[in-house]
Design brief:
By secondary structure, the chain is of the alpha+beta class. The chain has a single domain, classed as Cytochrome p450, CATH 1.10.630. The chain has 16 helices and ten strands.
């Protein structure tokens, strides 16, 4: 592979799409030595592999690290892995099935729709503050606080503590980038310890005084189980079968996952989406003239500039892609950003079309790990974009943004606007 795919290059991060086009033209799977991953750039392959049960987000439900030919993570990273590896995003059946079934109760259509009024109220307040200030950083003033506030309200995190959540999330999510540094790992470990300790205290409070929040509901699930397994590392044969419904560590990991997954993509879709609109003034003018385009516009903005560019899968059993055998123990890098610009699936994929009628983007994933919070994310995006379209109809870009260095979770550092 040549240097076109360069995830640590600022120029590549700013615009990875030409490199994706090159990858798609040259084949369906590519070995990338720096991360020792097989990169998959086509929509049909990515979509199929997300549903393929020969792949997994983890391998520890079937193999030890040694059996899988992998080196265990350093002992110093253990707090991060304990937190991360007990969340349903990084679990497979049966644990994933059990936890997802519990959390799904918080994301029923009725529950999510009931949150819509709260979401719109929060969005209106944030946009009103932006208007009073005459502009500012749209990322910090609207894009970030809205989804964080929504998830915090769902979890029952007191308003005074919410400023803690975003920095913890950002430090933990640094570990999802390709080949994270030891400095990144140290920040993630510290955030994992602090966030876990905070949630243990909050869980203890909710045990004493339950509320209507999700943590109280998870505590009820914890206490209704027949028995709760001892905390154990996730590995083949470890700890015996769990007949209870939820362990405390799973409860903590679930809360952290809901915050991280529940806002990172929404934040970047909002900021990256407005940056896209400012660069396509004719499309922005059409949206301002016809707010009924909002629902398709949100989907198109997620497709056009995908907030989460790559998701990884472990190969649990040999798979073959276009005649290339990918052996067990390998890791796939599924390129969501490339799949969402694949001309084999999307007509004129490099054009922004806010009225695009056929838009099967995979920004929320697919298969058993499809984003549980997708309906809530869509409500949040519609609320923030809609409020800005109504209340800040002349909003304009004040300065061209810079991109953060991360490629996997890809977003701008800030988005300065004027009203």
């Amino acid at each position: 592979m040549d240097a076109a795919f360069a995830p640590w290059s600022p120029d590549f991060v700013a615009d990875p799409y030409p490199a994706y086009a090159d990858l798609r033209a040259r084949g369906r799977v590519h070995w990338f030595e720096p991360t020792r991953q097989w990169l998959v750039p086509h929509h049909a392959d990515v979509s199929a592999l997300l549903r393929d049960r020969r792949l997994g987000r983890t391998y520890l439900h079937r193999f030890t690290h040694e059996e899988f030919g992998r080196t265990p993570p350093p002992a110093a990273h253990e707090p991060f892995h304990t937190l991360n590896d007990n969340g349903m995003l990084d679990l497979e059946a049966p644990d994933h099935t059990r936890i997802r079934r519990l959390v799904t109760k918080a994301f029923t259509p009725r529950t999510v729709e009931a949150l819509a009024t709260t979401v719109r109220r929060l969005a209106a307040g944030l946009v009103a503050d932006l208007r009073k200030a005459g502009g500012g950083d749209l990322l910090a003033e609207v894009a970030e606080p809205l989804p964080v506030a929504v998830i915090a309200e769902m979890l029952g995190v007191p308003e005074a503590d919410r400023a803690l959540l975003r920095p913890w999330s950002a430090d933990i999510c640094g570990m999802y980038e390709l080949n994270p540094s030891e400095e990144t790992a140290a920040r993630a470990v510290r955030a994992s310890l602090e966030f876990s300790a905070y949630l243990r205290d909050l869980i203890a409070e909710r045990r004493r005084a339950p509320g209507d929040d999700l943590i109280s509901a998870l505590i009820a699930a914890y206490e209704e189980g027949e028995e709760v397994r001892p905390e154990r590392p996730l590995c083949k044969g470890g700890g015996g079968r769990h007949t209870g419904r939820l362990s405390e560590q799973e409860m903590i990991s679930t809360c952290v996952l809901l915050l991280n997954a529940g806002h990172e993509a929404t934040v970047n879709t909002t900021a990256n989406g407005w940056w896209t609109l400012f660069r396509h003034p004719e499309q922005l003018a059409a949206l301002r003239a016809d707010h009924s385009l909002l629902s398709t516009a949100v989907e198109e903005l997620m497709r056009y500039d995908t907030p989460l560019q790559l998701f990884e899968r472990w190969v649990l059993d040999d798979v073959e892609i276009a005649g290339t055998l990918i052996p067990r123990g390998s890791e796939l890098g599924l390129l969501f950003g490339s799949a969402n610009r694949d001309p084999a699936r999307f007509e004129r994929p490099d054009e922004l079309d806010l009225s695009r009628p056929d838009n099967p983007h995979i920004s929320f994933g697919a298969g058993i790990h499809y984003c549980l919070g997708a309906p809530l994310a869509r409500i949040e995006l519609a609320a923030s974009f809609g409020e800005l379209l109504r209340e800040a109809p002349t909003m304009r870009l004040a300065a061209e943004p810079e991109w953060k260095p991360g490629f996997v979770i890809r977003g701008v550092r800030e988005l300065r606007v004027e009203l």
